[in-house]
Amino acid sequence: MGLDNLSIDTALKIASSLQVSDICSLGCCSRFCRQLCDSDYLWESLARERWPYINGSSSSTLAQSSISMGWKSFYIQRHIEISGRAQAAVKFVEQCSPSTPIEGGDYLRTIGGLWDLKLSFVDAQMVLFKPQLNELLNLVGLHYCRIWLQIPANQIMEALQRCKIAERHICVKWWKLGRWFYGFRMRDEQQTRRVSLAELMTEEGEDVLGVLSRGAVHEVLRVQVSVGDSFAGHWSRQST
Fold first, then answer.
1. Domain range for 139
2. Which residues pair with 102 in a beta bridge?
3. Three-state SS across 131-169?
4. Which among 44, 127, 59, 49 is positioned nearest to 93, based on CA atoms?
5. Residue 86, in any domain of the structure
6. Tell me: the pLDDT tens digits for 53-88?
7. How many structural domains does the chain have?
8. Is the pLDDT of residue 6 over 80?
């Protein structure tokens, strides 16, 4: 039995459990399905689930915009706008050489730009959790979701595994101010950690994520982040 034979309430309940891509495909099946998949009820639910901040009073302009143009049109327009503007972060990281570390300050500014765009967890997955992207872009998405959006680690881990990027590796290098010893300051300490994205969601990777979140502050003089084992090649060339 197809959706055409169901009551509108039952059909809407079934359709509301589908992904956006599935809803768009369903709308091509029949006139009834097209009308069903154009329903404001359906698209309002999708929009509020994807962008929870629409529910806040500070986003009344967005809510009014959705009412005036219809929820489906609002959803499509918002999706295109966010995806397009988020490409600025993507282009910045992609322009960096794979063998050249990114400075901690630039890295944190990139994440801050995502916050200014009000990217949701779904947005970050769609834009940044792609295996064909640079590992640093995957890291930016992970960091933004965990620290800025406060998404639980287990949910992020599920997304990493679903997108097949959990075992991708990044390297973080930081310099700490040398300790004082009998009136003399020792040489600045240097640490390098190579971790997978999955490890950053465990206790083992908490210290690395903490360094990335704080950046160069207090005793940490400098932070750099790079792809996989690229630090080794970069620093061996610097020393020759």
1. 98-239
2. 225
3. CCCCHHHHHHHHHHHHHHCCCCHHHHHHHHHHCCCCCCE
4. 127
5. no
6. 776 544 556 656 666 778 888 888 888 888 888 877
7. 1
8. no
